[in-house]
Design brief:
Layout (H helix, E strand, L loop, with lengths): L4 H9 L17 E7 L3 H14 L4 E4 L15 E2 L8 H13 L1 H5 L10 E5 L2 H17 L4 E3 L1 H7 L14 E5 L3 E2 L2 H14 L3 E3 L4 E7 L2 E7 L4 E8 L5 H6 L8 E12 L7 E4 L4 E5 L4 E12 L7 H14 L8 E11 L6 E4 L5 E5 L9 H14 L13 H4 L16
Parallel strand pairs: 1-2, 1-11, 2-8, 4-13, 11-18
Antiparallel strand pairs: 3-7, 4-6, 5-6, 9-10, 10-11, 12-15, 12-16, 13-14, 14-15, 17-18
The structure holds flavin-adenine dinucleotide.
Length: 416
């Protein structure tokens, strides 16, 4: 059923009794052309584009919990295309363009809001880097704008411009950046995939990957074995564990990242703001809560809850940047498991096992990548060739040395 203003009004007039479930509750079949492990944003988007762009509809998404129970429903929803490194730059540019038409594409309100994101800088050196990054973004075809302190004061009067430890020198703004409602993105892709015949199978954990003579044959699940010609692993924080089912060791560590939301306040922050002297970013949700986060917890873990020192660290950064935040009450905090690669860039590639593909290593930035990741992974699984904008996301780059060190942290996860 299509969603429209007309439908909302007529359903409202007749007691809202005519709405249909957004997707079927599919039971697993014995065999599929392609099986996707993981019903997060990337898995659902891949299934959607496999059906939509490549006509592959004998596809199942296998999710061990419920759709959207992973990081797709846990992130701070920032969407932007201001990456610097060749490889990342064109990929995130492609993703932002897909975001800009996503709601009409899916006929679903994902609340994509291009409210802008500013990254502040606090020294001459940081200004130089921001200018360089801005030029790279503009050369890529996206927007970037250097804001002076006066312009910042006008747009963000509540930042602490008086403090001497981390004085604000200016900011790099991307006006097309912004936020979206995270779980609606999962629901929109799920509905679109289901409409095209994809089976979305929840409460179905993959417990084994069947391989014969180096060729993938299917998967073992808690709901029985399923044969498949192609298998895509899109398990985000669990990527290492899922790949281990096929005997593969990925260049990935799993770390916890926490996020926080305050009580609802009147509109105060109308863009996304990133602090340049600490890992702190903040926006305000449409319900009024201030949504913010910081660094990963800095030790490998599969526990989706965080440690208290990191809570203190994030609150300190918030207070440093905008002391007014100290008056807001934090309502909730939560954690998600991040699949961290050594260079901070993702992997979308074949594996050494024929028919087995991997899409992982999204670090703390995979929400904004959801449309392009699905687009490129579907392209790879359907054609056997990397999509142009994802061709540098190779699994072997850590062996060959072609790393894309977007974070500038080298091989040390704890410096992310
Ligand atoms: C606190 C926090 C803040 C973040 N903020 C941002 C942000 O502002 N902007 C941004 O771009 N990114 C952000 N991210 C990162 C982003 O959320 C992730 O990179 C992205 O969601 C990962 O892809 P996904 O949606 O497919 O993951 P998930 O939703 O985690 O999907 C993976 C799925 O695989 C399933 N699975 C795992 N193992 C199995 C198995 N054996 N069998 C079946 N299913 C399995 C899981 O249950 C899960 O549902 C943030 C993340 C967190 C935690």
């Amino acid at each position: 059923m299509r969603y429209s203003g007309f439908n909302v009004i007529t359903q409202g007039l007749f007691g809202n009794k005519g709405w249909k479930p957004a997707w079927r509750d599919a039971a697993p079949k014995a065999e599929y052309d392609a099986v996707i492990i993981g019903g997060g944003g990337h898995g659902l988007a891949t299934a959607y584009y496999l059906a939509k762009n490549h006509g592959l509809t004998k596809v199942a998404v296998l999710e061990k919990g419920y759709l959207g129970s992973g990081n797709i429903g846990r992130n701070t929803t920032i969407v932007r295309a201001n990456y610097f490194m060749p490889g990342n730059s064109e990929f995130y540019s492609h993703s932002l363009k897909l975001w800009e038409s996503l709601e009409s594409e899916l006929n679903y309100n994902v609340m994509h809001s291009q409210r802008g994101q500013v990254v502040l800088f606090h020294s001459d050196g940081q200004r130089d880097t921001a200018v360089r990054r801005g030029n790279a973004i503009v050369n890529q075809g996206d927007d970037a704008e250097l804001l002076t302190v006066d312009q910042l004061r006008h747009e963000f009067p509540y930042l602490d411009y008086a403090q001497t430890r981390f004085p604000i020198y200016g900011g790099l703004m991307q006006r097309r950046a912004g936020t979206a409602r995270h779980d609606a993105v999962a629901w929109g892709y799920a509905r679109g995939a289901d409409q095209r015949g994809v089976d979305l199978i929840q409460n179905c954990e993959v417990t084994g990957i069947d391989i014969e003579n180096g060729v993938v044959k299917g998967v073992q699940t808690t709901r029985g074995p399923i044969r498949a010609k192609k298998v895509g692993m899109l398990a985000a924080g669990r990527s290492g564990q899922v790949a281990a089912l096929a005997g593969l060791r990925l260049p990935i560590e799993s770390h916890v990242l926490q996020a926080f939301v305050t009580e609802g306040l009147k509109p105060v922050i109308d863009s996304v703001i990133s602090f340049g002297m600490g890992h702190f970013y903040i926006s305000q949700s449409d319900k009024g809560g201030l949504v913010f986060g910081g660094d990963i917890d800095m030790y490998a873990s599969y526990a989706a809850r965080g440690n208290l020192p990191m809570v203190e660290h994030v609150m300190e950064a918030g207070m440093t940047l905008m002391p007014m935040i100290g008056r807001a009450k934090v309502l909730r905090s939560w954690g998600g498991i991040m699949d961290m690669t050594p260079d901070g860039s993702p992997i979308i590639d074949k594996t050494p096992i024929d028919g087995l593909f991997v899409d992982a290593g999204w670090n703390y930035g995979g929400f904004k990548a959801t449309p392009a990741s699905g687009w490129c992974m579907a392209h790879l699984m359907a054609t056997g060739q990397s999509h142009d904008v994802a061709r540098r996301f190779r699994l072997d780059r850590f062996r060959t040395g072609h790393v894309m060190d977007e974070e500038g942290t080298g091989s040390q996860h704890n410096l992310h």
